[in-house]
Predict the structure.
Amino acid sequence: MKALIAAGGRATRLRPITHTINKHLIPLANKPMIFHAIDKIAAAGIKEVIINVNPGDAEIHAAVGDGGRWGIKVGYVEQTGGPKGVAHIIKVARPHLGDEPFVFYLGDNIILGSITPFVERFKRENLNGLLALSKVKDPQRFGVPEIKDGRIVRVDEKPSEPKSDYAVTGIYVYDKNVHTAVDAIRPSARGEYEISDVHTWLIEHGFNVGYEEITGWWKDTGKPEDLLEGNQLLLSLLQGADMTIEGEVAPGAVIQGRVRVGKGTKIGPKVLIRGPVVIGENCSIEQSYIGPYTSIGNKVRVANTEIEHSLVLDNAELDCGERIVDSIVGFNARVVSSKSSLPLGHKLVVGDHAVVEV
């Protein structure tokens, strides 16, 4: 069995962060999002992975490499023809997949637990397709299955009146018949080849499409608040073995709960860190409070600031004398006090699609 990971798209709902980085490389718990997907795939025993990327995108390749760190083989295929929907990714990757069964994993999905039960059920029940489902509060945002007598009878894409409170998550298992379905469907009203139409086609043509409900949590990290929640969920899983203090902690600093501090990082004497928190390498934390569910990248400086339930990416600087919550601070960004220069007042350089609360 192979795996196909979708790592393309433009992630417009996450701008301005995604103006300068591929969404799938945004770090959650200080690890690129796509790494979490590869971890799950490798743990399921899959040894060959194809990653779908945007044309000309070298970022994913540079970060993931050939898969050696996971003991797998990774290849890449560019999404030709523009963004034409999730099902089109399968069409583009067809020459690399052959006729083997495969896991299709949307790289911005974060789940608790293993995908091994999905793969095992697919094989055990000799299915043509298997969909991972999760109960959600807003199913109209997703593909929604209609289930009768324990079987999926159709899947509707973003229905205004959902037939169930389940979402079809971005994790699927298929055999070679999915390629016939992809070739058979036509673009939807929005001009995309919908994966929900593929599933409905398979069902209506007599193929055996099963489902497995995800136990625990699942996050589709499509919006900023989803990134923060995904980061929170991943931090909540980190155990004692994951939480090591490799940097320097000055006398007087207080570290409570599960906290990881990277090499070269210096924690000053008047600092309180309350986990779960991860702090990267070569950071400087001075006279600050770092609260639960915060991930701080590498080479970050935090001074005279309180921050909680937030993501801070590499090379950022926080020195504002204020409390920051529920925030994402991008690469090389600076958050400083409005009193640090004249005239007094809030001085802003706000890019497209930014959100600022003052």
Notes: The CA atoms of residues 256 and 286 lie 16 Å apart. The chain has seven helices and 29 strands. The mean pLDDT is 87.
